[in-house]
Each structure stands twice: as C-alpha cells, then as structure tokens.
Write the structure tokens for this entry.
Amino acid sequence: MKFLYALVFLTYSVSSEIEILRYPPTDPQPGPRKFIIMNGVFSHNYFIFFGGYNNRDDIYSDIWNFDLSTRKWSQAFSSNGNNPSKSYLVARYNGGGFWNYLRDEYCIWGGMSIRGQLNDLWCFHLTNFLWREVEVSGDLIKPRYRIGYTNWNETSTVMFAVFGGITIEHASYDLYM
Ligand SMILES: *[C@@H]1O[C@H](CO)[C@@H](O)[C@H](O)[C@H]1NC(C)=O
C-alpha cells in the first residue's frame, strides 16, 4: 500500500487553466499518513491538519500547519503540556474539522479512535495553543467517522454540517448542523 506524503497545489484562477504543482518534502515535515482532518485557516495564512494514521496502524493526535507565505510546515504543540493523545482528547482519523474565525480556533469533531467512533468536539486555540472540549446541546449525534462535512458563515455564527458517515450500526444518511 502507498501512503500519501506529497503536497500538491492546484491553482485555479478565472481562466480555465488549472495548474498542479508538487511541493517537495521540507524539514520539518509530517510523516506519511491518511484520513487526516484538514482545513484552511486564512486569518493565519496557513492550512492545518489534525491526526490521521499511518501504515503501522499508529493513530496520530498531532497538529501541523502549512504556512502559505513561507511554504513550510510547522507542528503546533499544546502550550499546557497536555499531549492530545492522552485520554482526554484521543488520537483519531476520519473526523471533521473547521476553522472558527470568531474565536481564533481550529475545531475537530468525531472520527475513529482506538475507543471506536467518536462524537466529541474539541477546539485548539491558534494563539495560546490550548485545547478545550466544547459542550454541545440539542440533538445527539451518534458517534461516527468518514462523514461528509463542510462549514460556512451565517450572521456572527460559524456553521458546521455533518452528513452521513459510519456509526456503530450502519452507514448513515443523517444530516446535522
Ligand atoms: C467566514 O468569515 C471569515 C471572516 O470574514 C472568513 O475569513 C472565512 O473565510 C469565512 N468562512 C467561510 C467558510 O466562508
């Protein structure tokens, strides 16, 4: 099996041409992995990812961002020394994520872990580098992974939608916002 390591940029402008550029590995550089959660964080001019897993079945709980001006990766560490792989925030893959520009946070939801499917929401503050678990209310979303997800803005609110995915029982067609 092959695991993706390469970073590729698709440049799409108003012309119909789409140019693909491969970025060679840099140092530091996240290792090969799959099923990561990745989103743009444009207030910091980078994109960011969380977790994923490799070909030795190690599930990750690290955070990396790729700076769009320097074109370099850097790893973000929790400033209170809490390694997210500890039990309170379990390593995972195939969850969802979004950037909450209102609070300067990167948030991840659900996914698969050694404890099975998840439905928790965690946010990482992008300036003070602290994780917090976010309390949710309303309809309960069953733990799941391999979801479809997206996010958008409504008036002073960041919206995050989750569709489908795999729960303990079956593939799902639930839609939650
Ligand atoms: C939401 O608004 C912020 C601030 O204007 C913007 O940077 C961000 O890209 C918007 N997100 C989406 C998904 O449109």
Remarks:
- The mean pLDDT is 86.
- DSSP finds no helices and 13 strands in the chain.
